[in-house]
Amino acid sequence: MTPLSALVLLCLSFASTTLANVTPGFPYDSQKVRGVNLGGWLVLEPWITPSLFDNTNDSRIVDEYTFGQYQDRTKALNILKNHWDTWITEADFRDIAAAGLNHVRIPIGYWAYEVYGGEPYIQGQLPYLAKAINWASKYNLKVLVDLHGAPGSQNGFDNSGVKTSNPYVSPTFSVQSSDINFAIQFMAFVTIQHRPDQFSIEDHCRYLQGYDIGGFGYRPPE
């Protein structure tokens, strides 16, 4: 069993217990949240960055899944690296803070952490997420990591990573326990990677009780 899997099991075991309160790093009870979404960066969306898709000259390429499926992978990786390097930079975080905002929402797909079953997704996003979190810390901004593309697709639209034929029937995220567990593991990974010095195991589990999947907040019942 990997440490990450062990964390998930521990979280489940703590679910029925009372955990110590976690003091948030932002006064949510007294200060207004003013934020901006950094969409189209670590998860491709055709309506945000249409040129990335139009320039392939391939009508089959309609989402991030097909972006890696229907073109040379080295070429696709180079295109994505250039996009990741230039779409959002440290200057944007400086300007966001200077504009008086205090939060940034960063969409990312589960495939940044791991791909499985022969999926054609191209990886390389995680170092950019790490840089973004460091930039946010430098400019006193808080980060909401949005699992915008969940395993099995949470909505069947291209913004989940893969566009399915029937977005209201085909997605499996809400019905496959393996997809749900994979999503929890991803959020645990993000937490451990970027805040290992500030959370105990109980705090990790409490943190994971509220997360954002594809723009829809989820919180288990008390």
From TrEMBL:
GO cellular component, one term: cell surface
Coiled coil: none
Keywords associated with the record: Glycosidase, Hydrolase, Signal
InterPro entries the UniProt entry points to: GH, Glyco_hydro_5, Glycosyl_hydrolase_5
Biological processes annotated in GO: glucan catabolic process
Domain of life: Eukaryota
Domain Glycoside hydrolase family per the UniProt entry, residue ranges: 81-153
A Gene Ontology molecular function term of the record: beta-glucosidase activity
Gene3D superfamilies the record matches: Glycosidases
Similarity comment: Belongs to the glycosyl hydrolase 5 (cellulase A) family.
Protein name: Glycoside hydrolase family 5 domain-containing protein
Biological source species: Sphagnurus paluster
